[in-house]
Every structure is written in structure tokens, then in C-alpha cells.
Specification:
signal, 9% helix, 5-stranded mixed sheet, disordered C terminus, Immunoglobulin-like, mainly beta, beta-catenin binding, 31% strand, 4-stranded mixed sheet
Length: 785
């Protein structure tokens, strides 16, 4: 069996329709054989589909379905007995087939960029039995591309940089455009590049999209940024092709093509001579059109008469040269300096050496201005010596200062008393001679550090300071003495010639050759029979016993005078008494007890026990005295005598009431109504001597009299009341008077009252009191049952 023929649809649908309607014979395409197919009752026959790849044009915009092709089987005799079925991608939804004729149509607009081809399967069935008369065959419908996509720069817009002064043809950046059309069919995806904006500075290669420099010597200092517009057009740039554009921002990067130059050939600065060391004198800057590392500078002083006085540094932030002072300026010594300063780039590009030397020179003149300076001493530190035996008024030394200014003003001297609080020294205001003002003692203060002030006579605010160190020379004015307070003991069983103490001496003086002491017993003790002294010739001495048999009962303490002489000139001596106690010692010679009274104490009590008993007795006596004193203080009356003035005393009572719920503390009604009979209240801590009677009630009298009498009564009561505060106290009463003439207007107890009060006058008070007049009036209409 033969398969149906397939017709090609070329680029335009009109041509395809024209070919179909013109009755042109369909082109028979190459055949693909199928396997043998058997039907029962018939002999085997060999059949085949006539088929090939179908093509359909994308982006068809017509109203009718687009004809794709035709499927046909040789079995089909045209009598409608054969039924064609289509399955696979897009079957029924995109592609439909006429089951009688085998014509295939596309019902939707197709886009090759979404899907380039569709794989479908076709089958011919017997309409009556629905059995296949041909094996199922697979074919492809390929979407034929048209130029419907413009090139696009997916990475745009671009930014790039190229060094300034670059030669022509230097590559800057490459741009790339993509076209979604089929690159294998026609020229729809073949792109060429061109430059729309940026000429004549830059160019672009049509095929590669590489942007290059087109002009030499482009100077960043003239223009540092360019905006380029690059176009990509398909169809190899032919008319009718689609195009896309992108922007490219090209920045010229800096190179060191500009040497530094000082704006001026010379500079002049004035500075005061009092400017301290390390102060800034001037700031210079050589202009350089370059930026970044290409504009970094180095400054140095290459010549001049101030090389040792000034130095120049570089401010790394501003690239300025900073001239500073290395030594103190002195107008009187030198009034001006001239410096030759060079500025040079730190990094030089050899390609641009032809543009000139990358350094520049300038001259700086520094004028030193004269200022009124304080006096200057001839020496920063004066060292003087004086003996501590010097009398008051002894000359120690002389200081000298002068005014460094041209006026050479006279100088007056004085001592800063903050450095000589004891006023040991004086100075002559005119000559600067320092003398002693008080006797000196080396042992108290060996060195005095004082400050001498020098003031200009014409301008006392200009003060110079000089420093003087006065060392006090020692004389032998202190006698030697024991080095410490010795506690010497001798055992009762000591043997003759036994050493019981080693003594030494000290001397506050400080002789140049050191101390040398000699020891001996004083004259009255030299021949005693108990102890002797042995000089060890090393500034120490030993105390020895002369006998044995010391007894505490006979003598418990011995006093031994020791005579000590120093080696000064003249020598000084002193007699020091050594106290020796007789003690009971153990077998090793260690003292156990040294009190003679221990022999006369009772056998059952020791000294410690007696001391404890006495301490207890004293404690009891103190407690008894405290108790008696407290009781006497409690019995003292709290009422003050009339002769004692208590107006300046403050009496404090730590007595608190019970709050609002305490209704028994005092009667508030007594403060508000004068007619309430008040009970006399007495103090709780003493028994009052006078009992006060209640006052009678006041009669109805004028208000001013009522208040005056109320205050008078309260005053007299406070004067005689022992419970009242002192004289200078503030008494507060909430007294409101005796009430209105009509007394109470309340109706709470009017019904139960038997009062014959007439309330007819309420009718005369106006409409506001009409209701009360009706209630309490005596008319017959006001009677209640």
C-alpha cells in the first residue's frame, strides 16, 4: 500500500493556496516502507505512506485555519471508507485533520521561538470495522522561521574605562547582542554592529562588537567621560532588518601626564618669634591636574639659610607641604629666613617624560616678628650650697636674667613662695643675690628647690622663671643616741662576765667619712659591782655582768648610764640610760617572769585573776550608776518652771492619733461651736495641780464680739493649760460662729419637735422659699394628719 503525497508550503500562504487550487499535481516525496500488514481472508499486500516533513509558517495572522499538508493512503478509493486519525503533540488543540480527506490544518498562531517543531502520529482506519488498514506512522511539522525578533543586548547598559592618552585602536569593551530567530535559516539572526553616538572618539567592529578608541591623545583633564550608543541590526544590516541599541559609558582613567607646578614663584610668611617648636608656619601646595596616586607629592627644602630651623612635611590628605619649626625663633638673633622648596611627583610615568620635568621649585621667605618676651635666666638650673650653721643673712649665691628684647628692660627678682613656704631664703630684687632668712637644719630638709621669678620693670606681666637647688651642708650638731629602746633582762642565775645586751647608736648627722662611736659607762657607774661595758670598736658595745646571785626580792630593776661619743669635730656626746630587769629564767636562760610582786601574791590567785575580778567590779559599779541616773531623769517634772524661758525650746511629742476612725482622741465639735461645754483635759504624764471648770455658754451677741471673746477665751486657756505647746506656737480653730438667726432649716426633726416656732416669715423670702413656707406655715392648708 502506498502512503499519501505531501505538499510543501513555502514562505507565503497565498502561494500554497494558489498551488492547491491550480490543480497542480502533488509532488510525490520519498517513501518509507512499513512492515507487511496482513488481513484475514486476503493475500498479503505491501503498502506504504507517502510522507515527509511538513513546514508551516510562524506568526500566521489569517482568520481561516492554515493549511499544512495532506495524508493519503492508496487503500483510500475516495469512497469514504477510510478514516484518518491524528495524535501526538498539539493534535486536536493546534492541528486538526479531515478524517475523510486527510487534510491537516493549523488552528492557532504558531511561534517558532516558543516551539520549533511538533512530532505527530497518523493512522488510517477502516470506517466500518475501525481496524487499521495501515500501520501508524510518525511525522514532524516544523515551524518555519520569519524575522520577528530584534537583537537584544542582555548585559546592557555597559560601563567601561580606558586610560587617557591611549593610542588609536585600544580596546575598550565588547558588547554582545542576541537574536531569538533561527540562526540556521536565512539571515534573521545574523547581527552586525554600528555606532550611532560617540564618533569620532570611538569605533565598533561590525562583527565582533568590540569598541575601540578612534582618536589619539584623548585628555582626561579636558573631558573624562563619553556616552556611546551602539546598534545591533539583523539581516546582516540590510534594509528591513530589525535592530536594538544599548548605551556604553566610557570613562577615561588618569595617567601621570601633568607635572606639578607651584602657582607662584615666591611666597612670604610672617611668624612671631614666640611661636613654639613644632608649630605650623605655612602650608604650600603645587597644583597637579592628575588625581589619585598620580597627584601624590613629595616636598623638600633643597637650599636656604633655615635648613636647621625649619622642616617640611606632606599632608597625605591634601597633598600640601607643611612648613614647621624645629628650633626656637629669636628675632634678635635672626629676623628672616629664605628657603628653596621643591615639589615632585612620587610616581612618574616614563611615557610622558617628554612633557617636561615632573617637579617644580619655589622660594619661601619667612619674616620673624619681634614680640615682648619674658626675661631669660643665664642658666636653666642654678646649683648652690650653704652650711646649716650659716647665720641669717648669709649670701648663698646669685642668679641673673636679662630682657632678650631690644628694649632690654631692667629686671626685678622675687622668690615663688609656693616653693619656699617656710621662707628660708630671701633674694635681692635688683641684684638677684640669694641669702638665708632663717636658720637652716640639714636634718629637716637637706635640699631646697626654689623657683626665682624675673619680671620686666616696664611690663610686669612678662615673667621668666629660674630654678635653684640649694644643698645644705652638714655640721656636727646632733649628739649620738641609742639606736632603739632596749628591753634588757638579766637572769637570777647569770654567771659573772655573761653578755646580756648588745647596744648600738645612731646620729642624725651625716659626716663625709661616716660615723664612729665610742661607748663607756658614765662616771658614777664606771665602778659599779653589777655590770660593765665592753666597746666592740664597730659602733656597738656589749653589756656584761660582773657578779652572780641577782635576786628580784632584793632589787628587780637596775639603771645603767651609758656614755656615747661621736667622731665629729667638735665631737658631741650623750648619756643614755639602759634599764635592766632581773628575771626568773629557765634552764636555757629564757626569762619567765620579771615581777618582784609575784612573790607576795596569795598562793591561790594569780595576777591575771585579780585583774579580771577588778574589771568585773568596775563594770557592776558603772551599771548601777547608769540605772540610778535614768530613774532620776524619769522623776523630773515635765512642767517647766515659770522662770525658765522655753520660747526657744522645741518640745517633740511622738504621739500619733488613731486616724479618722479614732473618735475618742478629741472632740471636733468643741472647735466648731463655742457653746459646747469642753471638758478640761490634763496631761497624761503628770498630775496637774489646777483643775479648770467648764465655761458657760455664750448668749446670742454680735458676731464680732463672739469671735473676739472666742479667741480671748482660747488664749487664756492656752496660757494656763499645762498640756498646751510653748508660747510661740500657732493655735488653729475652725470656729464658724453660733449659726444663723433662723438656726437649722433641716426638716429631719421638725415633725417630732414640739417647738412653737413660727415659719410664716418664709413666705416673704420669695419664690425660692415657697416650698418651705408651705411645709412649715401655720395656715389651715399646711396641717398634716
Amino acid at each position: 500500500m502506498k502512503f499519501g503525497k505531501v505538499e510543501f508550503c513555502h514562505f507565503l500562504q497565498i502561494i500554497a493556496l494558489f498551488l492547491c487550487l491550480s490543480g497542480m499535481s502533488q509532488t510525490e516525496l520519498p517513501r518509507s516502507r512499513s512492515k507487511p500488514y496482513f488481513q484475514s481472508g486476503r493475500s498479503r499486500t505491501k503498502r506504504s505512506w507517502v510522507w515527509n516533513q511538513f513546514f508551516v509558517l510562524e506568526e500566521y495572522m489569517g482568520n481561516d485555519p492554515l493549511y499544512v499538508g495532506k495524508l493519503h493512503s492508496d487503500v483510500d478509493k475516495g469512497d469514504g471508507s477510510i478514516k484518518y486519525i491524528l495524535s501526538g503533540e498539539g493534535a486536536s488543540s493546534i492541528f486538526i485533520i479531515d478524517e475523510n480527506t486527510g487534510d491537516i490544518h493549523a488552528t492557532k498562531r504558531l511561534d517558532r521561538e516558543e516551539q520549533a517543531y511538533y512530532t505527530l502520529r497518523a493512522q488510517a482506519l477502516d470506517r466500518l470495522t475501525s481496524k487499521p488498514v495501515e500501520p501508524e506512522s510518525e511525522f514532524v511539522i516544523k515551524i518555519q522561521d520569519i524575522n520577528d525578533n530584534e537583537p537584544k543586548f542582555l548585559d546592557g547598559p555597559y560601563t567601561a574605562g580606558v586610560p587617557e592618552m591611549s593610542p588609536v585602536g585600544t580596546s575598550v569593551v565588547q558588547v554582545t547582542a542576541t537574536d531569538a530567530d533561527d540562526p540556521t535559516y536565512g539571515n534573521s539572526a545574523r547581527v552586525v554592529y554600528s555606532i550611532l553616538q560617540g564618533q569620532p572618539y570611538f569605533s565598533v567592529e561590525p562583527k565582533t562588537g568590540i569598541i575601540k578608541t578612534a582618536l589619539p591623545n584623548m585628555d582626561r583633564e579636558a573631558k573624562d567621560q563619553y556616552l556611546l550608543v551602539i546598534q545591533a541590526k539583523d539581516m546582516v544590516g540590510q534594509n528591513g532588518g530589525l535592530s536594538g541599541t544599548t548605551s556604553v559609558t566610557v570613562t577615561l582613567t588618569d595617567v601621570n601626564d601633568n607635572p606639578p607646578r607651584f602657582p607662584r614663584r615666591s611666597y612670604q610668611y610672617n611668624v612671631p618669634e614666640s611661636l613654639p617648636v613644632a608649630s605650623v608656619v605655612a602650608r604650600l601646595k603645587a597644583a597637579d591636574a592628575d588625581v589619585g596616586p598620580n597627584a601624590e607629592m613629595e616636598y623638600k627644602i633643597v637650599d636656604g639659610d633655615g635648613l636647621a630651623v625649619f622642616k617640611i612635611l606632606v599632608d597625605k590628605e591634601t597633598q600640601e607641604g607643611i612648613i614647621t619649626i624645629q628650633k626656637d625663633l629669636d628675632y634678635e638673633a635672626k629676623a628672616s629666613y629664605t628657603l628653596r622648596i621643591e615639589a615632585a611627583n612620587k610616581q612618574v610615568d616614563p611615557r610622558f617624560l617628554s612633557l617636561g620635568p615632573f617637579s617644580d621649585m619655589t622660594t619661601v621667605k619667612i619674616i620673624v616678628e619681634d614680640v615682648d618676651e619674658p626675661p631669660i635666666f643665664t642658666s636653666r638650673l642654678y646649683t648652690m650650697v650653704v652650711s646649716e650653721a650659716a647665720k641669717v643673712g648669709t649670701i648663698i649665691g646669685t642668679v641673673a636674667a636679662h630682657d632678650p628684647d631690644a628694649s632690654n628692660s631692667p629686671v626685678r627678682y622675687s622668690i615663688d613662695r609656693n616653693t619656699d613656704l617656710e621662707r628660708y631664703f630671701n633674694i635681692d630684687a635688683n641684684s638677684g643675690v640669694i641669702t638665708t632668712a632663717k636658720p637652716l637644719d640639714r636634718e629637716t630638709n637637706a635640699v631646697h628647690n626654689i623657683t626665682v621669678l624675673a619680671m620686666e620693670s616696664q611690663n610686669p606681666s612678662q615673667i621668666g622663671r629660674g630654678y635653684v637647688a640649694i644643698t645644705i651642708l652638714d655640721i656636727n650638731d646632733n649628739a649620738p643616741e641609742f639606736a632603739m629602746d632596749y628591753e634588757t633582762t638579766v637572769c637570777e642565775n647569770a654567771e659573772p662576765g655573761q653578755a646580756i645586751q648588745r647596744i648600738s647608736a645612731i646620729d642624725k648627722d651625716d659626716p663625709p667619712s661616716g660615723h664612729q662611736f665610742s661607748f663607756s659607762l658614765a662616771g658614777e657607774a664606771a665602778n659599779n659591782h653589777n655590770f660593765t661595758l665592753q666597746d666592740n670598736k664597730d659602733n656597738t658595745a656589749s653589756i656584761l655582768t660582773r657578779r652572780n646571785g641577782f635576786r628580784r626580792q632584793e632589787q628587780s630593776v637596775y639603771y645603767l648610764p651609758v656614755f656615747i661619743v661621736d667622731s665629729g669635730s667638735p665631737s658631741l656626746s650623750s648619756t643614755n640610760t639602759l634599764t635592766i630587769r632581773v628575771c626568773d629564767c629557765d634552764a636555757d636562760g629564757i626569762a619567765q617572769t620579771c615581777n618582784a610582786e609575784a612573790y607576795i601574791l596569795p598562793a591561790g590567785l594569780s595576777t591575771g585573776a585579780l585583774i579580771a575580778i577588778l574589771a568585773c567590779v568596775l563594770t557592776l559599779l558603772v551599771l548601777v550608776l547608769l540605772i540610778v541616773t535614768m530613774r532620776r531623769r524619769k522623776k523630773e517634772p515635765l512642767v517647766f518652771d515659770e522662770e525658765r524661758d522655753i520660747r526657744e525650746n522645741i518640745v517633740r511629742y511622738d504621739d500619733e492619733g488613731g486616724g479618722e476612725e479614732d473618735t475618742e482622741a478629741f472632740d471636733m465639735a468643741a472647735l466648731r461651736n463655742l457653746n459646747i461645754i469642753r471638758d478640761t483635759k490634763t496631761r497624761r504624764d503628770v498630775t496637774p495641780e489646777i483643775q479648770f471648770l467648764s465655761r458657760p455658754s455664750f448668749k446670742s451677741i454680735p458676731d464680732n464680739v463672739i469671735f473676739r471673746e472666742f479667741i480671748w477665751e482660747r488664749l487664756k486657756e492656752a496660757d494656763v493649760d499645762p498640756c498646751a505647746p510653748p508660747y510661740d506656737s500657732l493655735q488653729t480653730y475652725a470656729f464658724e460662729g453660733n449659726g444663723s438667726v433662723a438656726e437649722s432649716l433641716s426638716s429631719l426633726d421638725s415633725i417630732s419637735s414640739n417647738s412653737d416656732q413660727n415659719y410664716d416669715y418664709l413666705s416673704d423670702w420669695g419664690p425660692r422659699f415657697k416650698r418651705l413656707a408651705d411645709m412649715y406655715g401655720t395656715g389651715p392648708e399646711n396641717l398634716y394628719s
